[in-house]
Design brief:
Keywords: Glutamine amidotransferase, Lyase, Stress response. The chain has 243 residues and is an alpha/beta fold. Helices cover 31% and strands 16% of the residues. The chain has a single domain, classed as Rossmann fold (3-Layer(aba) Sandwich), CATH 3.40.50.880.
Amino acid sequence: MAKILMVVSAADRLTLADGTAHPTGFWAEEVAVSHRVLRDAGLDVDIASPGGARPTVDPISLDERGGVDEGAAAEFRSYLDSITDELAKPLALADVKEADYDGVYIPGGHGPMEDLAHDADLGRLLTASDRNGKIVAALCHGPAGLLSASGASGESRDTGAGFAFAGRRLTVFSDEEERQGLGNSVPYFVESRLRDLGAIVETGPAWASKVVTDGNLITGQNPQSSAETARQVITALKEHAVA
């Protein structure tokens, strides 16, 4: 059975450009739908976070403020409740061994911009996974976690030298989508930051599902891409097993 490590942000707030704190966390749909699709396909999924801290769900990802209708919110909440024991006691990233997993999957919400973007343990894990041809998947703001693979946090202005995913095709929550939400109050735009570091970013229409696969790197643009991103991970694992 293939084994995936789902890395979930432990941040419950995002430090905005003006220094104030904005409540955030992981996006409910991205964790719930991705986890369900992977589990339903028979994959073994472990959850990890920085320090093994319990992740916080972004409250607006479960109501109309986040564009989520009541029925969908109830579905996401129900699934998250069903894995509450796993969310309550995630693995600590520092304790995770890359050799134990067939891939890493990073869902979003604004949380990854705050902690995963500069988490050295995640950076080592992603670099090793990519070097060994294992799946590296990230969704929506999850690709902010890829920044850790060079120590290039969102606030830095590096040239991109040493960034593990420079020259790779990927997608991410677009600057256009960000401007329709928190806008210029965010500390940085993840799409722009990845471009600055040398990634080849491909985005589609705002709020429409888009997934980009570049070898072992699989990325989804937004919450609407959750199911398809997970399905592409499943497909890639099956192809790898056949090969």
